[in-house]
Amino acid sequence: MIVISFFRWLFFLLALLMLILGLWLWLSGEDITKPAGALWYAMDVSSLNLAQVVIQRHLHLPALWDEFIVPYLLVRAAWETILWMFITFMVLGGLLALATRAPRRKSSFRNDFQ
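Given the sequence above, the corresponding structure tokens read:
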């Protein structure tokens, strides 16, 4: 239960970080209509290369990088990528919040009148 609760808060924190990242990029004057990969490359090419190396070589998931991350995250506009990641993390956190919710107790008030 504690592990699920930890991941619930982790997903909510990641969603909040995505919101802050999007606002920071927008307020700093970056062109958020550029593809997310091009924006990431312009800001810090070494972290982009590191992410690719970690996913493809160290996690042994080249298909994840080539068939999901590149077409669905890096090719889309930066604002759209941030929005989809925010929504995904909020939904995952919400689902885990529902899973860890305490069961409802029956009210004794209803039982008195039945």
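Residues 15 and 86 are 5 Å apart (CA to CA). Try to locate this feature in the token string yourself.
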